[in-house]
């Protein structure tokens, strides 16, 4: 991530809300994210190993500091049940200053 990015959203999907909840709780406990949001029962359509697949999943939206990305990426990739998980970091261009400050304080070392 560019060093100028101070806050990011990280997106991933998991097979169900329970696995998503477990992952988010672990990440919050480790202070890698300030919080995570679960959007349950999203439908993903994708090509995998030459076939079009469709799956119900839980979408996870994580909020953290950009300088936590490398460690977060490593932890999520190791814990994730998929062979190739969706794991995307999106920079936050702007937001409510108090909320962005809260993300920063909750993900401090």
Topology:
Elements lengths: L6 E8 L2 H13 L5 E14 L2 E15 L3 H11 L8 E4 L5 H10 L3
What does this structure look like?
- By secondary structure, the chain is of the alpha+beta class.
- Helix content is 31%, strand content 38%.
- The protein is built from three helices and four strands; from the N terminus they run βαββαβα.
- It has a four-stranded antiparallel β-sheet.
- The longest helix has 13 residues.
- The chain starts with 6 loop residues before the first strand and ends with a helix.
- The mean pLDDT is 94.
At a glance:
With about 110 residues, the chain is α+β, with helices and mostly antiparallel strands. Helix content is about 30%, strand content about 40%.
Kindly list the characteristics that best describe this protein:
single chain; 109 residues; alpha+beta; 4-stranded antiparallel β-sheet; 38% strand; elongated
First-to-last CA distance: 18 Å
* Number of E-type strands: 4
Pattern of helices and strands: EHEEHEH
Low-confidence stretches: none
What gyration radius follows from the Cα positions, in whole Å?
14 Å
